[in-house]
Amino acid sequence: MEFKIFDSYEEASKYSADLVANVLKDKKDAVLGLATGSSPEGMYKELIALYNKGEIDFSEVKSVNLDEYVGLDGSHHQSYRYFMDVNLFNHVNIDKKNTHVPNGIAADLQEGAKAYDALIESMGSVDVQVLGIGPNGHIGFNEPGEELLVHTHVADLKEETIEANARFFESKEEVPTKAVTMGVGAIMKSKKIVLIASGKNKAWAVQQMASDVITTKIPATLLKLHPNVTVVLDQEAASLL
Ligand code: F6R
């Protein structure tokens, strides 16, 4: 696991975008594993800028997102499908048919989860997986607990996650309490991982990633077993290292 620390979030975002862009330059039909939330927003802006400069091309790229809230359809402003469209897909030449986000409104969520794993499998492995990290160490919505699940599943969001995400909604009560999330299996199978963290509220989780411990109670610590992880940080997220 390599830690890269930058003075600002903007610089961290630029660096993360370069890591992803290099994958696209090497492989035109790369499979991108994507995350939503505040952490990768700057990186998506930089990727759009690189696309506008003609440095990268998304025409053959496929993407799979980590997660989606249960109960929100893609037109809801806080759905992760909507986030991806607005923050990246609408601004580059990716074919929307090649972009995949778990279905949070499937009639049968378990079947939907199974189908999502089959889809990922059919694409071959993810070439680069972008991750944020929860203040409690979650990755995707694989929350702290006694166990972690390998496959895509419906997860109950922890109280602290609901509180952290309430900033995007009118009130805490509106935050969905469940999400469909990739399991740790697909994340660990990806060829390369770029994890972005910024701000003081991530410093504890980042410190745990740098420690010698692996525990399901801090899911991101599992990433120590992955051979190619770059953790991209601003000064505040790195403040306990
Ligand atoms: C989002 C996701 C989550 C976030 C994490 C951090 O797709 O999988 O794990 O990466 O909750 O969120 P932000 O970046 O908003 O602090």
TrEMBL record:
<dbReference type="GO" id="GO:0005975">
    <property type="term" value="P:carbohydrate metabolic process"/>
</dbReference>
<dbReference type="InterPro" id="IPR037171">
    <property type="entry name" value="NagB/RpiA_transferase-like"/>
</dbReference>
<keyword id="KW-0119">Carbohydrate metabolism</keyword>
<dbReference type="InterPro" id="IPR018321">
    <property type="entry name" value="Glucosamine6P_isomerase_CS"/>
</dbReference>
<dbReference type="GO" id="GO:0004342">
    <property type="term" value="F:glucosamine-6-phosphate deaminase activity"/>
</dbReference>
<feature type="active site" description="Proton acceptor; for enolization step">
    <location>
        <position position="67"/>
    </location>
</feature>
<dbReference type="InterPro" id="IPR004547">
    <property type="entry name" value="Glucosamine6P_isomerase"/>
</dbReference>
<dbReference type="Pfam" id="PF01182">
    <property type="entry name" value="Glucosamine_iso"/>
</dbReference>
<dbReference type="GO" id="GO:0006043">
    <property type="term" value="P:glucosamine catabolic process"/>
</dbReference>
<dbReference type="GO" id="GO:0006046">
    <property type="term" value="P:N-acetylglucosamine catabolic process"/>
</dbReference>
<keyword id="KW-0378">Hydrolase</keyword>
<comment type="pathway">
    <text>Amino-sugar metabolism; N-acetylneuraminate degradation; D-fructose 6-phosphate from N-acetylneuraminate: step 5/5.</text>
</comment>
<dbReference type="GO" id="GO:0042802">
    <property type="term" value="F:identical protein binding"/>
</dbReference>
<feature type="active site" description="Proton acceptor; for ring-opening step">
    <location>
        <position position="138"/>
    </location>
</feature>
<feature type="active site" description="For ring-opening step">
    <location>
        <position position="136"/>
    </location>
</feature>
<dbReference type="InterPro" id="IPR006148">
    <property type="entry name" value="Glc/Gal-6P_isomerase"/>
</dbReference>
<comment type="function">
    <text>Catalyzes the reversible isomerization-deamination of glucosamine 6-phosphate (GlcN6P) to form fructose 6-phosphate (Fru6P) and ammonium ion.</text>
</comment>
<feature type="active site" description="For ring-opening step">
    <location>
        <position position="143"/>
    </location>
</feature>
<protein>
    <recommendedName>
        <fullName>Glucosamine-6-phosphate deaminase</fullName>
        <ecNumber>3.5.99.6</ecNumber>
    </recommendedName>
</protein>
<dbReference type="GO" id="GO:0019262">
    <property type="term" value="P:N-acetylneuraminate catabolic process"/>
</dbReference>
<comment type="similarity">
    <text>Belongs to the glucosamine/galactosamine-6-phosphate isomerase family. NagB subfamily.</text>
</comment>
<feature type="domain" description="Glucosamine/galactosamine-6-phosphate isomerase">
    <location>
        <begin position="10"/>
        <end position="224"/>
    </location>
</feature>
<dbReference type="GO" id="GO:0005737">
    <property type="term" value="C:cytoplasm"/>
</dbReference>
